[in-house]
Amino acid sequence: MTLEEMSFEDKVKTLKSYIQRVSDGEDMESVQADFKENFSDVPAKEIAKAEQRMMAEGSKIEDIQKLCDIHSVLFQDMTDEERMQRLKEEMEAHQVKHVEEKIDNVEEEVSQKTIEFKNTFGHPLNILTVENDAIKLLIDETREKIRDNDNMECIADDIKKLSEIKKHYAKKDDLLFPLLKGKYDYPGPADVMWGVEDEIRIQLHSATDKEEIIKVLQRIEEMIYKEENILFPLCVENFEDDEWIQIADDMHSYGPCLVDELPKWDKNVETSFETIVNNEIISLPGGTLTIKQLRAILNVLPVEITIIDENNINRFFDEDQNKVFARPKMALNRDVFSCHPKRVMKMVTKLIDDFKTGKRDSMHVISTVDGVQVLTNYYALRDENGEYLGTMEAVIHIDGIINCSSEGKKGSISSEIIFPN
To answer: Which of 215, 238, 254 is the last residue of a domain?
Structure first.
């Protein structure tokens, strides 16, 4: 049966068989050769529709990612123009379930708007494009070194720089994908790209020879094409103006990838937020909490908290009954100095004075109390204008942290413990 005679269902089965062959350990190049022979003339739209069908039927994201790698072979012998056209077709395919027939002038409008956003200084797509240009430049430089040298040492610094790509991917993962997937019901691009990004990061870290490096550089380039010609237009067609503004504001917290600094959009304005309590709901710049949630958070944090207000009055203790430093409730609403022995009074007074005058913002003390190593942190509390609001004492048991560090145990705890002032 020729490809032209195959039904859509037969094509899906054939694509599944390619995935299974790779899963069974067959050489990727061998599977890609068969794919290229049989599917090189099949529109990307139809292949993408097959991917969507497989996802709907329960195929794992990992399998769709394998298919993504298999059909990436089609890009290898294409000109840039041919690649752009094929990726445009893929973008249209991902939109099929939302819009049955695409109107030419709508497509043209999205295309022009995408170009406009990519060239608008500080727009999220401008930021991602500027970073992509820097990534492509570094890839070209790395390839040139590989051609001219036989050892891996010549590209060690380049590979280390390329690891910054995680910052670029994080901007997409955290800011674009959740909107596409959650609000606009496009799970495919988000899930597949996210998984491929993870593999790229792992390959960058684990590559040991030039052949592996060349392959991962190619995957990075293919991801850039997919970003700029599938992901970007999809976002342009769906995202609203206020969403772009919020995305641009959030992007700066991720830091630049291979560029000195991120351009700032003129639509990003400094906004001030008021703290509002209404019907048991506390609205803050970072979101909303109920009063019950706030109480539960304060009590579950692995830290003993004491709050002193701007007039040096004890105002709050967390409710933990097993504190390193006992905090009797009768000390609440009393002068903090009356709760300390004379031998430490001078230090306490000096610290609070330094906080009030802005001379310092924190102090950190490590001590041993009843055989337990403790880190006591003191922080000046200030409002958005820098006005002093009080002092927080936060006591943390650090025996477990130190043990993990000294024993080299892996986990979420950093191998370095730093106490900045």
So the answer is: 254
> Cβ–Cβ contacts within 10 Å for residue 239, how many?
20
Domain boundaries, position 400 = 302-407
Share of the chain above pLDDT 70, in %: 80
Question: 163 in helix, strand or coil?
Answer: coil
Q: Is the pTM of this model over 0.85?
A: no
Least Cα distance to 110 among 296, 237, 277 occurs for: 237
State the total domains in the chain: 2
| Final residue of a structural domain among 233, 254, 275 | 254
Statement: residue 298 has pLDDT above 70: yes
- Sheet containing strand 287-290, edge to edge, reads 276-278, 281-284, 287-290
For residue 89, the number of C-alpha atoms closer than 13 Å in the C-beta half-sphere is: 14
| Three-state secondary structure call for residue 380 | strand
Q: Are residues 250 and 307 in the same domain?
A: no
At 103 the pLDDT is 42
Contacts of 42 (CB under 8 A, 6+ apart): 3, 11
